[in-house]
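hiii so um. not sure if this is the right channel but i have a protein structure encoded as tokens and i wanna go backwards to a sequence. like what aa goes where. can anyone help
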């Protein structure tokens, strides 16, 4: 296991001294932010603390099965709590509550424990338990609970495993490490519901979502640069009764088209704009070079751009 962070002792002290604690997940929360929140909450409740989970947005459907996921609050009064904890907030802006509660950022007024794994984290807490090398916030919490010798119940283990699975793309992303896999094993041994995590995260889709993906996959083509390209218009969404966010996850399949070197998904965003998303598994390709041609950016292996306009299908006939 990796060594404990110097902030672990300070974090434990903050948590042990507090009686009423609110834990905040970032806006548009994902499974890591929800899993971390609910696991920490249970640990603290097991110590007799009064704990509230809050987020400006509802937890996503794939987290609804987690213990206490239905008890999230959409608002809270900081005066009711003696400690604020943020989980998986890659910067202070992501908690969103600071907009109408500026005292959350006033370190003279509010005690705040910031637990996160994003390199972008601006260390906005009184204590910052931030480990940029960690694949997930749930990973950091496992190390922390182990360090503090706080018991991990089966429901806590499920919450932590869900976050770890989500942020590593079921251990397929490049942030997959031997330690991450070992921790998944430990969580499973502690009673985590591995099968349910996989089912909820990776094998549950609505019919409209699958129909939308079907349209995109049917149109997928490989060009001379070995780019796998497809597109979805606003009319496609309406035709299959799909929602805007039903596109999430589709891009991961486009790169499967052998022998593609990278993939491109073009979608109309319903506001007169076209979004381009690109992915590659090839470390020698820099997708930001393509994205920047259209005023976009991102990471070398995952980049995107937005341009004004509508998508038009062009048929090209040629004679070999
Ligand atoms: Mn995360």
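sure thing!! here u go:
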């Amino acid at each position: 296991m990796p060594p404990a962070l110097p902030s672990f002792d300070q974090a434990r002290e903050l948590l042990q001294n507090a009686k009423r604690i609110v834990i905040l997940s970032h806006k548009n929360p994902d499974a890591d932010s929800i899993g971390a929140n609910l696991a920490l909450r249970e640990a603290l409740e097991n110590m007799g603390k009064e704990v509230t989970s809050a987020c400006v947005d509802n937890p996503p459907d794939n987290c609804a099965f987690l213990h206490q996921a239905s008890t999230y609050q959409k608002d809270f009064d900081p005066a009711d709590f003696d400690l604020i904890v943020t989980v998986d907030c890659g910067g202070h802006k992501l908690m969103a509550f600071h907009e109408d509660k500026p005292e959350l950022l006033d370190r003279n007024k509010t005690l705040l424990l910031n637990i996160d794994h994003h390199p972008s984290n601006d260390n906005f807490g009184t204590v910052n338990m931030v480990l940029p090398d960690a694949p997930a916030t749930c990973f950091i919490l496992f190390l922390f609970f182990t360090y503090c010798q706080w018991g991990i119940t089966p429901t806590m283990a499920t919450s932590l495993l869900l976050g770890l699975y989500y942020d590593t793309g079921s251990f397929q992303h490049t942030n997959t490490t031997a330690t991450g896999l070992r921790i998944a094993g430990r969580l499973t041994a502690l009673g985590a519901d591995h099968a349910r995590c996989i089912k909820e995260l990776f094998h549950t889709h609505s019919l409209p979502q699958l129909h939308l993906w079907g349209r995109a996959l049917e149109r997928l083509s490989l060009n001379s640069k070995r780019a796998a390209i497809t597109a979805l218009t606003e009319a496609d969404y309406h035709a299959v009764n799909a929602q805007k966010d039903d596109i999430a996850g589709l891009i991961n399949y486009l790169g499967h088209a052998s022998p593609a070197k990278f993939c491109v998904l073009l979608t109309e965003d319903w506001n007169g704009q076209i979004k381009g998303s690109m992915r590659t598994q090839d470390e020698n390709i820099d997708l930001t070079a393509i994205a920047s041609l259209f005023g976009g950016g991102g990471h070398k292996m995952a980049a995107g751009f937005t341009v004004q306009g509508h998508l038009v299908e062009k048929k090209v006939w040629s004679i070999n």
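oh and The longest strand covers residues 273-280.
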